[in-house]
Write a structure and sequence with these properties.
Blueprint lengths: L1 H11 L3 H18 L2 H33 L1
């Protein structure tokens, strides 16, 4: 991780810790402006998207298995 941080600092001419804290501040600011319903809706959407992706993955694996057998 440390080598990645050094590479990041060299490429961006920035400081990793400052970038991380800035990102955290932006996320906290966003959360203060969003309503609880919007946050909940976003969380549900992410969970549903993940479930759909997992379902598609296993469906494709199952289809490949059926084709090969």
């Amino acid at each position: 991780m440390l080598s990645y941080r050094r590479t990041f600092d060299a490429i961006t001419n920035s400081n990793w810790d400052k970038t991380q804290s800035k990102q955290r501040d932006e996320e906290e600011t966003l959360l203060t402006y969003l309503s609880k319903e919007e946050i909940e809706r976003s969380r549900i959407y992410e969970e549903q998207s993940f479930s759909i992706a997992i379902g598609l993955f296993f469906s494709i694996i199952f289809l490949i298995f059926l084709i090969l057998v």
